[in-house]
Task: inverse folding
């Protein structure tokens, strides 16, 4: 089977490894120590998960709990979004719910989210870490649970990253997550081991570096698109977080 996949994400943001896979008409039983979601985009998969047989298709997801012996077989063209889930991504309650019902129907909301994630993964190389932020919400939707702290935090992160050029304040970020600024600081320390301002600074520098590597845009325009007040502010940020300047970084990437 083919496995185009994401490169490893930063430790703090690595909720899952996402893959687009096509399975063959063969079945090789195996097991792994991480939980896995199999979400067919086209075709149908016959699966045996810990002795329970079922079919996964565009309306039915399959969940493989850690350590479960499983085998997958496909008859015909098929393509699936597969999520290899980090241990901290799945709560104990979700693990219990999903393990009891490894073949579960996709709601309309979950189906649209799966389609969005698959399209984003197929068209983004290297994949944007924003895609990671939708994983907790997908799990909450599949298990029909209210959004957890992790989901609310990562939804906020996705929205802020998508508009890195906006002059975000901590208060505005907290409002997006529907919590107080002090609570947002607690969430960041617990989940990302940083502060909201430090995280946003890293997002902007990473975005600036991406544009410096992949475009010929003027430095002033890159600064604007990444949320810096001017080019000198971007230069200061790159010196602080990358130990270089925008011009030197771009030159090094071209050499």
Result:
């Amino acid at each position: 089977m083919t496995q185009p996949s994401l490169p490893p994400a930063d430790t703090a943001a690595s909720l899952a490894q996402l893959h687009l896979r096509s399975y063959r008409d063969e079945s090789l039983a195996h097991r792994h120590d991480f939980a896995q979601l199999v979400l067919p985009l086209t075709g149908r998969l016959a699966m045996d998960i810990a002795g329970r047989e079922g079919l996964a298709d565009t309306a039915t997801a399959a969940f493989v709990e850690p350590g479960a012996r499983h085998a997958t077989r496909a008859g015909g063209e098929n393509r699936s979004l597969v999520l290899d889930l980090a241990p901290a991504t799945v709560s104990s309650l979700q693990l219990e719910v999903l393990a009891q019902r490894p073949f579960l129907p996709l709601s309309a909301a979950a189906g649209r989210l799966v389609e969005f994630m698959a399209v984003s993964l197929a068209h983004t190389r290297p994949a944007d870490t924003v895609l990671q932020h939708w994983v907790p919400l997908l799990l909450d939707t599949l298990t029909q649970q209210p959004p957890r702290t992790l989901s609310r935090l990562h939804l906020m992160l996705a929205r802020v990253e998508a508009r890195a050029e906006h002059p975000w304040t901590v208060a505005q970020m907290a409002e997006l997550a529907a919590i107080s600024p002090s609570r947002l600081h607690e969430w960041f320390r617990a989940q990302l081991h940083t502060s909201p301002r430090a995280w946003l600074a890293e997002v902007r520098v990473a975005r600036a570096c991406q544009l410096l590597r992949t475009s010929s845009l003027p430095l002033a325009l890159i600064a604007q698109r990444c949320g810096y007040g001017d080019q000198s502010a971007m230069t200061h940020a790159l010196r602080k977080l990358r130990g270089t300047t925008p011009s030197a970084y771009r030159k090094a990437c071209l050499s």
